[in-house]
Specification:
single chain, 167 residues, Cytochrome Bc1 Complex, Chain D, domain 2, two-stranded antiparallel sheet, 6 helices, 51% helix, disordered N terminus
Length: 167
């Protein structure tokens, strides 16, 4: 029997447990499949689950992670984003503000005002003060599902398919 570990769009549960995110937001599921037909059914279900827009908690933590660690996953014309544009504490505030750009209520609404100031000072030069990414040269942060999250979902699904094919 083949065994596969399915992850949601969020980072692994270990990292998220440090952030006090409810367990039902980013869950790892283990599944065993006896045949290809069953695997295909489970892959379709996983695809369906991953197509839903990211939860506020997951996206907010993703934005914090990108600010703190940088990212080269998007392949934007302007290049990758380096880490260290803000302190970890300020990254939380910026991420809270970024959630408002797509009309969402962040996990910590009390961070919005200060996050706006940090965003305009640290991030607006590349993303624009409106967060739309300066005509596509940088990521548009006003989307309900951030492009980086969408790409990571696709990468996980492709990796899972490859793993299942090789056994």
């Amino acid at each position: 029997m083949l065994s596969a570990l399915f992850f949601s769009a969020c980072e692994d549960k270990t990292d998220l447990s440090k952030k006090s995110v409810p367990e039902d937001i980013c869950i790892a599921k283990t599944t065993t499949a006896a045949n290809t037909e069953e695997l295909e059914k489970e892959l379709k279900q996983l695809q369906k689950e991953l197509e839903h827009p990211c939860t506020v908690q997951c996206c907010q933590l993703y934005v914090e992670k990108v600010i703190n660690e940088g990212s080269d996953v998007l392949g934007m014309p302007a290049g990758s984003m380096a880490k260290g544009y803000a302190t970890p504490e300020d990254a939380k505030k910026i991420a809270a503000y970024v959630m408002t750009l797509s009309g969402r209520k962040p996990m910590h609404p009390e961070y919005i005002q200060e996050g706006n100031l940090y965003f305009n000072g640290n991030c607006g030069g590349c993303h624009g003060n409106d967060g739309k990414g300066l005509g596509g040269t940088h990521p548009n942060l006003t989307l309900k599902e951030l492009k980086g999250v969408k790409i990571r979902k696709k990468m996980r699904i492709e990796a899972l398919k490859k793993m299942l094919k090789t056994g």
